[in-house]
Structure formats: C-alpha cells, structure tokens
Amino acid sequence: MSTALGAVVLATLGVTGLAHAAGTVYAALGDSYSSGVGAGSYGSSGSCYRSSKAYPQLWANAHSGTSFTFLACSGAKTGDVINQANSIPSSATLVTVTVGGNDAGFSDVITTCTLGSDSDCVNRVDTAKTYVNNTLPALLTNTYNAIKAKAPGARLVVLSYPRFYTVPGSCWVGLSDTKRTAINSGADALASVIQSRAGSAGATFVDVRPSFVGHNICSSAGDYLHSLTWPVIESYHPTVAGQSGGYYAPLQAAIG
C-alpha cells in the first residue's frame, strides 16, 4: 500500500494516530516558574533565565518528535505573556503557562515579609490578595483569550504556583510561622483565582501544590524550593528537583 493510499484509508477509518506520530507543536509561555529560574543551566537566554532543566524543556525532551518553542521569561506579567503569545506557532497543539504572581507583587511581598514585622507581612499579603481577587481575574482572562486566539487548535494548560512553606516545619531560623502562613495563604488565593479563570477559558488547570508537599521550605526534605539564596533571583523558586518532581511530574500526569 502506498503512503498516500495508506493515509487515505486510515483517515477513512477515523484513525488519528498520524497526528500523534507527527509530534506535538509545543509552546511554553509564562514567568520565571516556567522559564526555570532556580534550576540553573540558563544557556544564552540572558535575563529570561530559560533553563534546560525547566519543566517545559523536560516535557519536550521526554516526548519524541516535539517541536518546542520556549518563550517563558523571568519577570513576566500578564501583559508580557500576551506579547509572548504573538510568537506561538500557528500550528501549536500544546501551550503551557504560569502567570499572575508578578502582577500580584510577589517580589515585593517577599521583600516586605523578609525585612518587616509580622504585621507588615500580613498586611502586604492581604493587599496582594485583594489585588488577586479583584483585579487579576480580568487580566488572566485576557491573557488566556489572547493565547487561544493565536493558537486556536492548541490545548492550553495553566499551572499554579506552590505553597512555599511547611508550617510548623523544621526551620529554626528565618521567617516566623506567622509570616510563613501569610505567604502560603497568598499562594492559595492565587491558585484559586487561576483555577477559576483557567476553567472559564476551557483550559486544563494543573495544581502543583500537592506535588510540593513534604518538599517545600521547612519540610523534612526541603529540596524542591530555594529559600533565600545567592544569586538572589533564585530565591523562592523551584530547584532542579522542584522543576522535575514539582512541575514536570504533575504536568505529565495531567496530559501524558
């Protein structure tokens, strides 16, 4: 049977394996949690800090035939991700994204909680949560819609951020449990809104928080997240193990 005739017969029978055999056209969008800040091996990606050990690259490596476009960049906000969407291949069949943390002022929250009092930290987290609940939803919706408009045939997968701390945990120095609890509550508020907006956009939501349990800061293992570290930009970001076990593993479980 000729290749052309075989393709016609398979199509007539409704066999769809050819699309799978051709490989996935995958674009990874988002901020530092998708670019892989904290995992090292940034190559020539400059200030975007795209790591060869980040979960998008791990997924592409594990799926033979994948055509991979790595667009995630450290510091990205929703507006930046909308700009990233302009570079998605029109033939994309899979898009992943993490976004929202920078819009909500993640860096300033961590700075305030590190340098300020317990009440300073709680108040700053509460301000961030107000933003997350009242302003961020529309920004996320606009972002997801922009991605879908650019790649209407792609499956959109939206991933959350982890909780950062085990409370009470094994840490005897550093932030108080009050601060750690406040920071975790901010991550939970962000995950709730991201899940809601992703669902409304018809996207697949992947909650990474369960994957980090037992591996976050002040846990018995504590190997998935950096605490305060050098270089400072890697602080509170996934380690190599965090990208693999905390992000790649639940993504793979969700979409194969």
Automatic annotation (TrEMBL):
Keyword Signal: yes
Matches recorded under Pfam families: Lipase_GDSL_2 (PF13472)
Cleaved signal peptide residues: 1-21
Keywords: Hydrolase, Signal
Keyword set includes Hydrolase: yes
Domain of life (superkingdom): Bacteria
Any one GO molecular-function label of the UniProt entry: hydrolase activity
SUPFAM superfamilies in UniProt: SGNH hydrolase (SSF52266)
EC number: 3.1.-.-
Stored CDD domains: SEST_like (cd01823)
Class in the EC hierarchy, top level: hydrolase
Domain SGNH hydrolase-type esterase: 28-243
Protein name: SGNH/GDSL hydrolase family protein
Organism: Amycolatopsis plumensis
